[in-house]
Amino acid sequence: MTVIFIAKKLNISEKLIQELEKHADIEFVEKARVDFEKIKALRKPGAKMLAPFPEPLDWKLPNAILDNIAELKGVCLSTTSFDWVDGEFLRSKGIPLTNVPGCSTNAVAEGAIFMMVAVARRLPIILNCKEFDYVPENALVEVCGKTAGIIGLGNIGSRVAELAKSLGMNVVYWSRSSRNRRFRYLCLKKLLKTADFVFVCLEMNEDTGNFISSKEINSLKNTTGLVDVSHRGVVDWKHLVERVGEGKLFGAASDNAEQRNYSGNVFVMPHVNWYTKETLEEKSRIWVQSILSVIKGKPENRVN
User: How far apart are CA 280 and CA 294, in angstroms?
Assistant: First the structure.
């Protein structure tokens, strides 16, 4: 068995590499952009497993490429999301597809809380003004005692709820299927009208596209701040920032917006909240564990 990593070797500890080498040969393809025709290891005889980072592939792994890899025994992704690979296609060929679940939950949730505080303390405005004007309408906001409304109570939403509660916030939530007695459930309409800070923690799928549309955004109180922790397309971001710019919403935050500069209390950062030392260590451990499980014929974290 040869495990072909589409990733830089430095992303995996020497200890984990040594553990893998007990069970398989390892090849690293470390190019910023990958041309599969030039990967010699794919043309060698024998069983193969693909372990790709998404960035060198531009988050796309076409079926035509997968179909052209002889004796492919598994595809082990380095990401939690797996919609950039056709799992059904691989399943039809008896090839397991695995992901790395849950490793960035705390990192992303802490990042969401940080973005909320940045909005509450009007950082986008303060950092862009020459001199702060000490007038009541510019007063900063404390989050203790405020209501956090969580939309989507999966792993990340649940952790955001726990952290918000630890800050002294009242926590309410809406979820299509999850229920948690530690927090108060509200219908979506009531949550939007109640919360002081709304956290959108939804995966992007056929049911969640434009889930928080202009209609939902317009129902928010003008003192509300919205923190978008979802994939791009779940929230109508363009309409959201327009409302903030017009003074009809207190603020907005995202680490997944298309641009960086907006008017008003809009806090935007690169998509880096997940990229912590702790997440990277856990991600590598689970990734290698998934690869070993496929080699041994008992796939863990299988998503197809």
Answer: 21
The full DSSP string for 189-234 is HHHHHH-SEEEE----STTTTT-B-HHHHHTS-TT-EEEE-S-TTS
- 84-99 pLDDT per residue, tens: 999 999 999 999 999 9
**Which domains are assigned to the chain?**
2-103+277-295 (3.40.50.720), 105-268 (3.40.50.720)
Beta bridge partners of 260: none
Secondary structure class of 251 (helix, strand, coil): strand
Q: Residue 168 carries which side chain, given as an amino acid letter?
A: G
Strand partners, 227: 199, 253
Per-residue pLDDT tens digits for 205-240: 888 888 999 999 999 999 999 999 998 889 999 999
Task: Indicate the SS3 state at residue 57.
Answer: helix
Q: What is the pLDDT of residues 234-289, one digit of tens each?
A: 999 999 999 999 999 999 999 988 787 898 999 999 989 999 999 999 999 999 99
CA angle 233, 247, 200 (to 5 degrees): 30
Predicted TM-score of the model (pTM): 0.86
Alpha helix stretches (DSSP H) within the chain:
14-21, 63-67, 87-92, 105-120, 123-126, 155-166, 188-194, 214-218, 237-245, 277-295
DSSP bridge pairs for 199: 150, 227
- For 163-202, write each residue's pLDDT tens digit: 999 999 999 999 998 899 999 999 999 999 999 999 999 9
Amino acid (1-letter code) at residue 274:
W
Q: Do 149 and 188 meet the contact criterion of CB atoms below 8 Å apart?
A: no
> Order of strands, edge to edge, in the sheet holding 97-98?
25-29, 2-6, 48-52, 72-76, 97-98
